[in-house]
Write a structure and sequence with these properties.
Elements (H helix, E strand, L loop, with lengths): L9 E4 L8 H9 L4 E8 L3 E2 L3 H10 L3 E7 L5 H18 L6 E5 L7 H17 L3 E7 L9 E2 L2 E6 L14 E10 L8 E6 L26 E4 L3 E4 L11 E5 L5 E8 L6 E5 L4 E3 L5 E3 L11 E4 L3 E4 L9 E5 L4 E10 L2 E6 L4 E3 L5 E3 L2
Parallel strand pairs: 1-2, 2-4, 4-5, 5-6, 6-8, 8-9
Antiparallel strand pairs: 1-10, 2-3, 7-8, 9-10, 11-14, 11-17, 12-13, 14-15, 15-16, 18-21, 18-24, 19-20, 21-22, 22-23
């Protein structure tokens, strides 16, 4: 049986690769490369001056472009400072809003708690600037930091001696499988990755949804915003920009009192239990819990850590085991418990049906 080498989907570059010609980028594309990720910054002191020109030439031949920041932070304040600097450098390098700005996390491993605090602080600023976020790290660190991103995890480096036929880290966005690829027109060695999702290969995407005018027809009880969403005093004010009381950040858990449908249009709004009103547009809002629709979810991944119970009643006395972020679970069925759901596994045990705890894989 003939086995194939992993695909050449993504090439990441830096000042180590120097000037890369348009011809070399064209060669990369002919080999199947779809996206280029350039280093733009390091710490709070280094801007990669090769980034702007290389990204411009990559873009000119039809490659998607993104940026990465080499992290040096060890504290939350340090992470914030580096994030602001990374955003500044990404903009200077021509990385467009909606593209990915990666945190290259491989310098300091200070343990699960501190790593998560710092990387989450970094991610928050990157997302607020209009970039999508992902985290790059080595395979040996995947249990030391939360690297989940909207249902999938980050970008993982692991270089097997013979990667032929391998698909390591297939539940992640991408696997960097070599650091020694060659392309015609350059004497440099390049890092190459295989993509398992379109997170990088689809290029820049809007940080706000296109209004598809598709609204909830039922009350899910619990919801969360996909994007920053405005809350209003009255249902009549929703969507008009006036009467905004507050804004809810993405992934904020919200409790719904009722769904209110328009009698004359397809529009609908949610009244929250706190008395405020928000849109019920499905492009902006997602139901927090998986539904019991048969076959709707077959596999999930732990986002921040997951507990497994032997009963649908989640009480400490029924706790069986705890799992770290990134753990995959195969789902037998979704079970409704009051206004929430549980995911029953093949062994008959249960984990939460909350999408912010266990997110959809397939």
């Amino acid at each position: 049986m003939v086995t194939r080498m992993p695909r050449y989907d993504i090439v990441d570059i830096s000042n180590n690769n120097g000037y890369i010609s348009t011809a070399t980028f064209r060669t990369m594309r002919s080999k199947g490369v779809k996206a280029i990720i350039s280093k733009v910054s390091e710490g709070t002191y280094y801007y990669d001056t090769t980034a702007k020109g290389n990204l411009s030439r990559a873009k000119s031949v039809g490659l998607k472009i993104h940026g990465y920041h080499f992290a040096r932070f060890t504290t939350v304040s340090g992470a914030r400072a580096e994030a602001y600097y990374a955003v500044k450098c990404a903009r200077a390098a021509g990385v467009p809003k909606g593209a990915v700005l990666v945190c290259d996390f491989e310098s300091y491993n200070r343990g699960w708690s501190e790593n998560n605090a710092t990387t989450h602080a970094f991610a928050k600023i990157v997302k607020a600037a209009g970039y999508r976020y992902d985290l790059y790290t080595m395979g040996s660190w995947i249990n030391s930091v939360s690297i989940n991103n909207s249902g999938r995890a980050g970008w993982i480096a692991n270089y097997p001696y013979n990667p032929s036929g391998m698909k390591l880290y297939a539940s992640y966005n991408a696997w960097q499988w070599t650091s020694s690829a060659h392309f015609a027109g350059s004497s440099s060695r390049f890092d190459v990755s295989m993509a398992y999702s379109d997170f990088y290969t689809k290029g820049a995407t809007s940080t706000k949804p296109k209004n598809k005018h598709e609204y909830f027809a039922w009350n899910p009880k619990w919801i969360y915003p996909r994007f920053t969403v405005a809350a209003y005093r009255t249902k009549a004010e929703v969507g008009h920009g006036k009467g905004v009381v507050k804004y809810y950040k993405p992934y904020t858990k919200l409790h719904v009192k009722q769904l209110i449908k328009s009698k004359t249009t397809k529009h609908a709004v949610f009244e929250l239990t706190n008395g405020l009103f928000i849109t019920a547009n499905r492009a902006w809002i997602n139901n927090l819990y998986f539904t019991t629709t048969k076959g709707a979810v077959k596999r999930v991944k732990s986002v921040h850590g997951t507990n497994k119970y032997r009963s649908k009643k989640f009480d400490k006395k029924y706790l069986v085991a705890s799992f770290r972020a990134g753990t995959l679970f195969d789902v037998a069925k979704v079970v409704k418990v009051g206004s929430v759901t549980r995911l029953q596994l093949a062994d008959g045990k249960y984990i939460s049906g909350n999408k912010l705890i266990n997110n959809f894989v397939k």
